[in-house]
């Protein structure tokens, strides 16, 4: 009625809607309810957290932010207010297989799809992806610590050469100084090169490789790339390589490592999870080790179902590969 009062008399609209004019004017003068005022204040907090996450967080992570701030509220209320404000998280695309199987294996699979680690620098996973720009592809190689999901080494290059993975590994070695760490990757030519093998041998790194054409053998690295694509690459277009480099740097070092919450590690960021581990080193049972976000499926081509594999209701089992 208030929106149409310039077109129609109040008395006419009240007669059509079956309300009294005095009731309408009393409603206009009535102050907002305590619930409406609280919802308005909570909506402002939700909007601030959503903006701080670069418009990527959905209800669970917004709820975790509110809880950390000391605001006790139900998830359904957060969902209602986000829906009313038009706020939503981003969603991932489906994975597409682009490689073919090969019988050769330059290094053994030391992981066996078990991406759990009870301490930092015990298991690293690595992979390469590309960033599309108007000036051509820019390739990104990362090294991720399976314990906290922190990106401990990364490098970018305009060519898909072995140096890009060497630079990422060197950064991880320089910043973490590991001892006997497992470096797990796929069987890309960059990781099977002689130079990369020599660098691993010199640094005391144990190479591990999954099979070709099976994304589940390197699921944790694929999970990070899915997050990168969903929360950054699918939402922006880059004109130059320099613009893409800056955006990726800001995402990894400015958001993902220090602030991005992970459901598998108690909705903490990778850096905060490692800080908590350092404070609670004498009580390791108090930590929940990082695991893959979704159940790892059976290998393509299996004729019989894997009855020992994880199901979606149990994400804490240590391995999804059936053992002999």
Describe this structure in words.
The protein has helices at 10-17, 21-29, 34-52, 59-68, 75-85, 162-176, 194-203, 219-231, 241-256, 270-279; strands at 123-133, 136-145, 150-157, 182-185, 206-209. It has 324 residues and is of the alpha/beta class. The chain folds into two domains: 10-85, no CATH class; 123-286, Ribonuclease H-like superfamily/Ribonuclease H (Nucleotidyltransferase, domain 5). Strands 3-2-1-4-5 form a five-stranded mixed sheet, sandwiched between helices. The termini are far apart. Residues 98-102 and 292-324 have low confidence and may be disordered.
Summarize this entry quickly:
With about 325 residues, the protein is of the alpha/beta class. The chain contains 10 helices and 5 strands, in the order αααααβββαβαβααα. Helix content is about 35%, strand content about 10%.
Based on the model shown, name its key terms.
Nucleotidyltransferase, domain 5, single chain, five-stranded mixed β-sheet, 2 domains, 10 helices, alpha/beta, disordered C terminus, 324 residues
């Amino acid at each position: 009625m208030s929106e149409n009062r310039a077109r129609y008399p109040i008395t006419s609209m009240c007669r059509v809607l079956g309300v009294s004019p005095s009731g309408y004017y009393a409603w206009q003068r009535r102050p907002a309810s305590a619930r409406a005022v609280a919802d308005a204040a909570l909506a402002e907090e939700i909007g601030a957290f959503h903006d701080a996450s670069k418009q990527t967080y959905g209800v669970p992570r917004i709820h975790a932010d509110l809880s950390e701030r000391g605001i006790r509220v139900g998830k359904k209320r957060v969902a209602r207010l986000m829906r009313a404000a038009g706020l939503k998280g981003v969603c991932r695309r489906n994975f597409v297989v682009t490689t073919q199987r090969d019988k050769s294996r330059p290094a053994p699979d030391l992981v066996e799809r078990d991406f759990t680690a009870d301490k930092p620098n015990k298991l690293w996973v690595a992979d390469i992806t590309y960033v599309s720009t108007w000036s051509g592809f820019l390739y990104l190689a990362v090294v991720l610590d399976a314990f906290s999901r922190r990106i401990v080494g990364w490098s970018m290059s305009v060519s898909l050469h072995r140096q890009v993975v060497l630079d990422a590994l060197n950064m991880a070695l320089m910043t973490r100084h590991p001892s006997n760490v497992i470096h797990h990757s796929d069987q890309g030519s960059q990781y099977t090169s002689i130079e990369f093998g020599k660098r691993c041998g010199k640094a005391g790194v144990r190479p591990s490789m999954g099979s070709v054409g099976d994304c589940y053998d390197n699921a944790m690295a694929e999970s990070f790339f899915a997050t990168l694509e969903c929360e950054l690459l699918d939402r922006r277009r880059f004109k130059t390589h320099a613009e893409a480099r800056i955006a990726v740097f800001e995402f990894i070092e400015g958001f993902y490592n220090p602030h991005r919450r992970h459901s598998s590690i108690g909705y903490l960021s990778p850096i905060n999870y490692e800080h908590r581990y350092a404070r609670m080193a004498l009580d390791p049972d108090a930590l929940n080790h990082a695991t893959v976000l979704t159940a790892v499926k059976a290998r393509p081509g299996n004729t019989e179902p894997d009855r020992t594999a994880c199901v979606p209701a149990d994400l804490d089992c240590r391995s999804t590969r059936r053992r002999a």
